[in-house]
């Protein structure tokens, strides 16, 4: 039986709101490894994204942290209980998810086995929406990979109001030259190809847009493409001059506090699995 090249363990992030369960996968390495925060799709859970892209990254020497988003996985509540008739609750959960994604990035940056200069963010579907919004505000993110990601649908109700809360196009522009990788299904009816193209056009170079012959869920070879791209982007350490990105001018208060320095949050680890 082949010896495992990475360690997988359950962790719990203390974000100050409610405990956030996660799966941390660390490659066996003599030096701090690059790391990627993984954000899953709607009605999914951390295990699915950890078992797909997370394992593909681990085989390439890249650590990952997959978390359960609010109302998903083992979290309190049920996503199916949210309704468009209660928009304030939807907004509150969205903002909670954004805060927790920032905290997951901070967890990776403070972990002794992770190189804080080589951290990326990757998301699928709902997680892709979340990833581009968070990356636009967080200077820790060196690269962004989106699977089944795109702009808001053209028929989004009250689109101008929605964009004051979450605007993927504006967030893509705020990547300010950090590498972006997108991969989408040619026949995806959930995140349609035109939504992917609009988001891609909003971002600066360097950027890549790839297509697979399928629908919403990417096939194994598409997941491998994402893992290879992320591992390549994070393989080299940035020079001293480029070691940190300045927080964008309109960055979140959380990102600005982190740049000024803040007390690390306590976390708890479970047994390896």
Topology:
Blueprint: E1 6-13, E2 20-27, E3 33-39, H1 46-58, E4 63-67, H2 87-110, E5 114-124, H3 126-137, E6 141-147, H4 159-162, H5 168-173, E7 180-185, H6 193-202, E8 207-212, H7 220-233, H8 253-260, E9 267-272
Parallel strand pairs: 3-4, 3-5, 5-6, 6-7, 7-8
Antiparallel strand pairs: 1-2, 1-9, 2-4
What does this structure look like?
By secondary structure, the chain is α/β, with parallel strands linked by helices. 33% of the residues lie in helices and 23% in strands. It has 8 helices and 9 strands. It has helices spanning 46-58, 87-110, 126-137, 159-162, 168-173, 193-202, 220-233, 253-260; strands at 6-13, 20-27, 33-39, 63-67, 114-124, 141-147, 180-185, 207-212, 267-272. It has a 9-stranded mixed beta sheet, sandwiched between helices. α2 (87-110) packs across α3 (126-137).
């Amino acid at each position: 039986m082949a010896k495992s090249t990475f360690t997988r363990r359950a962790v719990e992030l203390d974000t100050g709101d409610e405990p956030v369960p996660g799966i941390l996968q660390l490659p066996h390495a003599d030096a701090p490894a690059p790391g990627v925060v993984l954000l899953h799709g709607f009605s999914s859970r951390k295990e699915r994204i950890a078992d797909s892209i997370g394992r593909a990254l681990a085989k390439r020497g890249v650590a990952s942290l997959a978390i359960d988003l609010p109302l998903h996985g083992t979290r309190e509540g049920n996503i199916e209980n949210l309704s468009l008739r209660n928009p304030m609750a939807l907004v509150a959960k969205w903002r909670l998810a954004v805060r927790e994604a920032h905290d997951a990035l901070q967890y990776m940056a403070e972990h002794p086995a992770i190189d804080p200069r080589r951290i990326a963010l990757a998301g699928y579907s709902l997680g892709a929406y979340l990833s581009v919004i968070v990356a636009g505000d967080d200077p820790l993110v060196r690269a962004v990979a989106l699977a089944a990601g795109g702009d808001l649908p053209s028929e989004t109700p009250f689109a101008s109001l929605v964009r004051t809360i979450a605007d993927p196009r504006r967030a893509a522009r705020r990547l300010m030259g950090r590498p972006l990788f997108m991969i989408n299904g040619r026949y995806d009816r959930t995140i349609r190809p035109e939504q992917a193209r609009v988001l891609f056009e909003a971002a600066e170079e360097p950027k890549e847009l790839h297509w697979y012959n399928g629908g919403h869920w990417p096939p194994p070879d598409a997941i491998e493409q994402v893992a290879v791209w992320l591992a390549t982007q994070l393989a080299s350490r940035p020079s001293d001059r480029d070691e940190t990105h300045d927080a964008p001018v309109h960055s979140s208060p959380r990102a600005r506090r982190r740049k000024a320095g803040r007390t690390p949050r306590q976390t708890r680890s479970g047994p390896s699995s």
